[in-house]
Amino acid sequence: MTLDELIAIIQAAGGAENALAYAKELLVKINRIGAERSCAPLLNQIRFAREEGDFRGRVLEVNFADCFLRKGIILNNAVKQGMKGDIDFCWKLDAHAVYIELKLIGLDRKTRDEINAQLERRGASSIVVNNADGKGDTVDVARLQADLIQKASTRKFNPTVGVGIINIVAVDVSELQLGTVDLCDCLLAAGGNSLASRYYKDVCLREAVVGAFETIAPNQLKQSQTEWLKTVQKLPEGAPHPKTYIHGALFLFREPRERAALSYDLCGAMVWNHALIAVAAANQICSALYDVIPRPKADGPGE
Predict the structure, then answer these.
(1) Angle at CA 292, nearest 5°, toward 79 and 243?
(2) Which residues pair with 165 in a beta bridge?
(3) Which of 3, 90, 101, 223 allows an S-S link to 76, with CB 3.0 to 4.6 Å?
């Protein structure tokens, strides 16, 4: 791919001057990945991405794959498990085939519209992330979990897990709460209060939340948690719950976090569904993963 071609793609996807400043760095990564036959589908997807959300999602895939490639690890792109859709990547790690589906969570439209309106009026944003009732961050946990569950769709993942297969959903959370989302929110979304309470004080917990990988006996559920399961974790009738076939969630943070940045480093925190994966396997994968995508610098867990 040439620089002129990439600039045209960025502009067609709505990228302005700030985004174009990253074109040369992004091009290096695209061409490094494009040299690998197993990643050819990704190069084609970048070429035909014309909508902002689709393009930025492909850019996340480029930066993610490049993290591995710089460590000498070649990921297979657009792989199948016998279902209709493709999973973004497969990483062969000894006896494991680690399937990874990526999701970039952008600002919700209402927040973006409010920010844009304030920027127009004042030239700067004074948006307050948390709502006055203190539930704003819970809304973001709900959105994070809902996106995680949606990305775990059986359109892509086979709910019958074969020997050696590890399924992971990786979510870029850099833009949630205007970049202030923390690891506690991620733990709540994946493991619920039972996991988050092992690392954080009670003030950080959210009574209504039930983690995506969490199982609570029906007679132990609070009314708010029952409502959470009916709404946030609502699944199509007859569909299996992702906690029966998704082994873990990887929460990604970009650096720099600026929305316009198209070339960036990634760090991440892995949260396992321990009902599905043995401790030894989880530790092996984490050891290899954190060598490629390090843990966030801030103190906090990454299993």
Answers:
(1) 55
(2) 97
(3) 90
Two structure tokens written together for 128: 């307050």
* Backbone φ and ψ of 13, nearest 5°: -90, 5
Unique residue bearing structure tokens 């650096």:
255
Q: What are the DSSP calls for 55-117, one per residue?
A: HHHHHHHHHHHHHHHTTT-PPEEEE-SSSSSPEEEEEEETTEEEEEEEEE----HHHHHHHHH
Please report, in tens digits, the pLDDT of each residue of the chain (303 residues total). 899 999 999 998 888 888 899 999 999 999 999 898 888 888 888 988 878 888 999 999 999 999 999 999 999 999 999 999 999 999 999 999 999 999 998 765 555 555 455 545 544 444 333 433 345 568 888 888 999 999 999 999 999 999 999 999 999 998 876 556 688 899 999 999 999 999 888 888 888 899 999 999 999 999 989 999 988 898 888 899 999 999 999 999 999 878 788 999 999 999 999 999 999 999 999 999 999 999 987 545 556
Whether the CB-CB separation of 194 and 214 falls below 8 Å is answered with yes
Q: Three-state SS for 158?
A: coil
Q: Domain extents for the chain?
A: 1-76, 80-292
**Exposed/middle/buried for residue 4 (C-beta within 10 Å: 0-12, 13-18, 19+):** exposed
- 3-state SS, residue 218: helix
The one-letter amino acid at 13: A
| Tally of CB atoms within 10 A around 221 | 14
Q: Which of 246, 265, 247, 245 is nearest to 255 (CA)?
A: 265
Residue 70 CA to residue 266 CA, distance in Å, equals 13
CA–CA separation, 242 vs 152, rounded Å? 6
Nearest by Cα to 262 from 86, 5, 13:
13
